[in-house]
Amino acid sequence: MSVGTEETPVRSVVNRVGLQLQKCLNEKGLCLLVNHGISDEKLKTAWDHLDDFVDLPSDVREHYIRTGDDNHGYVRPGVERFNGKTPELRHAFNICTLNAKNLPEEPLPGFAEHISSLAQDFKALSRFILQALAVSLDIPQSFFLEKHSHMLSGDHDNESTLRLLYYPPIIEDTDEKNDFIKGSCIYSYQRCLSDKPDFRPETNPRDEINELDGKDELNGTTERQLPNGEMIRCGAHTDYGTFTLLAQDSEGGLEVKLPGSEKWQRVGHLPGAILINCGEILSIWTRERYPALPHRVVIPEQQHIRSRGRHSIAFFCHPDNLTMISPNDLPNNEIGTDTVDKKPRKKSFKAAKENFFLFLKSLLGSTTHTS
Ligand SMILES: O=C(O)CCC(=O)C(=O)O
Ligand SMILES: [Fe+2]
Fold it and tell me: Which of 24, 81, 287, 327 has the most beta carbons within 10 angstroms of its beta carbon?
């Protein structure tokens, strides 16, 4: 889908994108955006900066670590645990404000300017999507925009976050155990390897395991028992916010469960595309017309692939904290009769709501998961 990101977008473009979003998000819970205005080069440069950050001595990285204050800052591998037990093997740098707060400008000149500018781009793209979403739901174009007016303002009134992610290579090294949690592991700093679309067949050697996954909706078998212990890249979950914009390098590993399906399916790689997936809040707001999408990042089956690192960038778009989320805000009409989803939704409205309250709770107390 092709989008434009001017501050006051042309109504006909908003309408057209709204129609496409309506179909994709209702049927699939996700959509791939192209011509979105954020260049591939800019994304790759952000990953270069992240690689340089990960390469800093750990005592320097410590200066930028996320404090309990808000979600802003660096998160070491092994700190977050989606399923409450298995450590996630990824470095995350969360940006919650455009004020370049506590960014590693001194050890890494250019980091703050580039990443803040990228965060601004993702915010602009989100503002466009919010308008297209409103149009797609037959409500005034500014409806969602007004409820997301504090994104990245730094005033703690909105949880929207740009997150730079690096998943280190998984090296099976029985002699010299890599202890990821303590941070001593071999990193690879390759950039995007391929500029070619890669939509591998939907079946993969994991499928037999996938069938079993259905028993436990969100705790899929993402973990792998390796000589280093049990590991995952990113456990199965749905995002909490309105929607998430996700850019990935060409390493793959992202899998989703489409609405009404129990099977994990690969997303594949379309160079330069940004994936949008619905979060819990949008699902609640729309009475699951736009369902939250379960997803995870698996450790690749093939040893030579998992021995490379993987990069992604996620922008979690959240409403302002004081927003009342009520499905009654939206007209209770079905989406165009030809696109009405007849399949049973796996996740109930009640479950989505419970997850959201868990998220709120996690913001108030200590948390193992913050997207
Ligand atoms: O890295 C990815 O591709 C996905 C990350 C993700 O889903 C999350 O952080 O919520
Ligand atoms: Fe996610």
Answer: 24
